[in-house]
Amino acid sequence: MGAAENRKLLEFGAGYGRKLFVNRIVNWQYNAEILPVALESDPVIVNTINWTSPTVYTESKRLVQTTPCVPSSGSYSSTQNGTTYSYNYTFSCSRQWTMGESLSPIGFQWNFMPRRRMQPFFINHGGYIYSKHPIPVPDAGSFNFTFDFGVGVEVYRTMYKSIRAEYRFHHISDANSTNPNPGIDNGLFQITYSFGR
Q: Which CATH class is domain 8-41+98-195?
């Protein structure tokens, strides 16, 4: 769904879960997450131009790309009205990390075979991410909606302590409230240590 390519997402936080319904087949839980550290990374192309004529100087621009960055270089020369304009250019690739925070207050988790030590599960969330700068491009917004869904396995060490390993599809966009709105899709791997009563 998202059109912004080659983005990266790294999040740290905590969650809250509460059982809603349990039987021999399924353990249905409410699940919410707060992620005070949400780092989003965009590819940046650095355009450096070294003018050699009619004057000598260097200029550089950093542009956030919607598509993956492709490095390149070359030169240009042209004569107009007796004046020669020439320069060498280089396109190099870099990354720009943007700090934000995320909250997913609406979420559910379904653990199957809840009497076993190892339980497969399905999980999903809905919420928002607020970033220090607009993402994934400068003309987009700093406030974006999020949703994710995924599958994993939860291994119980004791009755109240477990470790979850999961894979999620994660989407970020501002629901077309800005133009452009390319949106971001990520595949996330997550490890969670769970404890409680």
A: mainly beta
3-state secondary structure 43-108: EEEEEEEEEEECCCEEEEEEEECCCCCCCEEEEEEEEECCEEEEEEEEEEEEEEEEEEEEEEEEEE
Q: How far apart are CA 106 and CA 85, in angstroms?
A: 59
Which pTM was predicted?
A: 0.82
Q: What does the radius of gyration of the chain's CA atoms come to, in whole angstroms?
A: 24
For the stretch 143-158, pLDDT in tens is: 999 999 999 999 999 9
What is d(CA 197, CA 193) in angstroms, rounded to the nearest whole number?
A: 14
Q: What is the mean pLDDT of residues 96-121?
A: 96
